[in-house]
Amino acid sequence: MIESVINISEGRRRDLVDDIAAAAGPDLLDVHTCAFHNRSVLTVVGDPAPRAIARRSMELLDLTTHAGAHPRIGVVDVVPFIALDGTPPRDALAARDAFARWAAEELSVPVFLYGPERTLPEIRRSAFTTLSPDHGPTQPHPTAGAIAVGCRPPLVAYNLWLVDPDLATARRIAAELRSPAVRTLGLAVGDGVQVSMNLIDPDSVGPAEVFEAVGRRTSIARAELVGLLPAAVLGRIDPGRWEQLDLAEDRTIEHRLALREQRRQKD
Predict the structure, then answer these.
(1) Of 210, 248, 204, nearest to 229 (Cα)?
(2) At how many degrees (to 10) do helices 167-177 and 207-215 cross?
């Protein structure tokens, strides 16, 4: 089974987010929305859902009017494909490439690939300067920008909000925690600040480890899981800490897949 975690550049107009999410139909597993980032993360499975979400996002959203704390290159900003349940990684790579060709041809939007070729941070640094799109037009779409389409293992997107709303502190901590297993940004988010992280290898460095690392440096106001996490990552953590870390069994990929299967059987 192939999962896709689609990041769209809209998090303030919930009616639009709901409209876009509805395009995924029964293959939608989760929606996480942040008004400060002005961004939503839609977790889906299967081939049709990512295409339906991308098409609807381009119909409803306009990058030229967008503002938010999170960096972005498009209204459909990031579309990673992830192999689940023992599915070979090559299947996720094939799904990535098929989506990239479709988006370039059907939506006329530039597509940058990440995975074996390069990392997502490299695209953010170099798109349309030293790096040309892998598919589609050579210039940004006038309202949709571009799409970064990737292939990767499961990761955990995780934010830690700090008690001290000092951006310099958040950026310093983000730099200190940055490693091959942890990608970090220090962001000003509304009246607060956060250390925003992608835990690239959550089996070795997961939510508990980064919470402790940040907590040794400053006081944490709250934790925020973005989207879902693998059950194996949750299983490594003492259940007594789940609430503090903003984790729960019903926020695992496996739990949402089981709910999807139950709905399919009823239908």
Answers:
(1) 248
(2) 130
Cα separation, 239 vs 230, in Å, equals: 15
Tell me the pLDDT tens digit for each residue of 217-264.
Answer: 999 999 999 999 999 999 999 999 999 999 999 999 999 999 999 988
Report residue 173 as tokens. 């901590």
Question: How many independent structural domains does the chain possess?
Answer: 2
Same-domain check for residues 187 and 85: no
Distance CA 144, CA 76 (A): 7
pTM: 0.93
CA distances from 151 to 116, 132, 225 (A): 8, 19, 21
Is the CB of residue 104 less than 8 Å from the CB of residue 76? Answer: no
CATH number for 182: 3.30.70.670
3-state secondary structure of 230: coil
Average pLDDT over residues 171-179: 97
Q: What is the mean pLDDT of residues 133-147?
A: 97
176-213 per-position pLDDT tens digit: 999 999 999 999 988 999 999 999 999 999 999 999 99
Helix 14-22 to helix 48-60 angle, to the nearest 10 degrees? 150
Q: Which of 151, 171, 195 is the last residue in one of the domains?
A: 151
Verify that 45 and 135 share a domain, yes or no: yes
User: Under a CB-based contact definition with an 8 Å cutoff, are residues 76 and 8 in contact?
Assistant: yes
Statement to judge: residues 147 and 228 lie in one domain: no
Containing structural domain, residue 68? 2-151
